[in-house]
Amino acid sequence: MPKLLNSFKTFFRSEQIGGFILLFCVAISLIIANSPAKDTFINFLNTEIGFAPINYSILAWINDALMAVFFLLVGLEIKRELVEGELSSLKSAALPVIAALGGMLVPALIYTFFNTGKATASGWGIPMATDIAFALAIIAMLGKNVPASLKIFLAALAIVDDLGAILVIAVFYTNQIHFQYLAMAGGILLLLGLMNYFGVKKLVFYLIPGIFLWYFIHHSGIHATIAGVLLAFTIPTNKTAATSPLEKLEHTLTTPVNYLIMPIFALANTNITFQKGMFGALVSPLGLGIVLGLFAGKTIGVTLFSWLAVKLKWANLPSGAGWKHILGLGMLAGIGFTMSIFIALLSFSDVVHVAEAKFAILTASVLSGVVGFVFLKAVKD
């Protein structure tokens, strides 16, 4: 238990600071996108680097390769929680899992309500995601205003939410499948699984095949970031006090992901050029679906499904937390920034829709963060 608590504290502190760096990069990206340097910046992102057969633009390297490392860390966190953390038993996992399910279904339904039959219908996955870095940064700023158990609950909920978003990307945002590459990726995955089974502990024997796994999945048609999650689930771990290879890799990746990879992603992908009529787009079906989906949908979904789980005696509220805390946490879950933008990039090919979606995500995330913070700050019981 002390090992788990120390691991969580380290992770939480890193996420908190990483959230502030992320916010800074969002601001810089917006400034660049609305300055004379915007075209230079776009041309830089479109510059191709690499060598055959892996010659991609800088933006593609960020979204496909660096984000695969982010998903590797997410996968490691999910596996650790499943083996020895908040998701390791049915009773302890029930509330964050059920709350996350509500926080995904209700926003998707709200978005679908506004966009059914329209060109933007494919974006239903956008409001389903919670940004773990920003959400934890906001709740960290609340300090002792919220019970420590609520912070752990939010982390577990966000991890389950990430898993749901990963599955949505893999199943619904993949176009053409090239089965020969998928078969080769399957072979690599089988090799990794066998190494885990036979007790291979050295991380290098997983990471080198993991690079080939990324390459084959990238060429299979499935989004390359899924390789990170698949690799994570093959990394050995344990329930003992001994530090496992999974924990070593998670510890190694946490700092570069939170301080470098996520800020770079935000810098490259937030670049929204404000234009006349953009605020009006917030009341379009696309804008309403995202803003109401994230802010209202997350709040309603998380709170309602948590209430049902407790009333049906499937789960208990976090220690020291009341329903007002769950309501406020549901608001914070509406901060969907990083993952939502990522899904938006997969959802639309129209640059106008992408820009409108990014602005709606930014608006909803700011609204959710500010209202959630103020609400939880005012909660006395």
Written account of the structure:
The protein is built from 14 helices and two strands; from the N terminus they run ααββαααααααααααα. It starts with a helix and ends with a helix. 47% of the residues are buried. 71% of the residues lie in helices and 2% in strands. It is globular, with a radius of gyration of 20 Å. It is mainly α. The protein has helices at residues 2-33, 38-45, 58-84, 90-115, 132-141, 148-172, 179-197, 204-220, 226-232, 245-269, 285-311, 323-332, 337-347, 351-378, and strands at 48-51, 54-57.
Number of helices: 14
What is the strand content?
A: under 5%
CATH topology: Na+/H+ antiporter like fold
* Mean of pLDDT: 87
CATH superfamily: Na+/H+ antiporter like domain
Instruction: Look at the helices and sheets and give the structural class.
Output: mainly alpha
Largest sheet: 2 strands, antiparallel
The percentage helix is over 70%
User: Order of SSEs, N→C?
Assistant: HHEEHHHHHHHHHHHH
Identify the CATH architecture. Answer: Up-down Bundle
CATH class: Mainly Alpha
Q: Roughly how many Å is the radius of gyration?
A: 20 Å
If strands are numbered along the chain, what order do they take across the biggest sheet?
Answer: 1-2
Shape: globular
Number of strands: 2
N/C terminus separation = 27 Å
**Weakly predicted, low-confidence segments:** none
- Count structural domains: 1
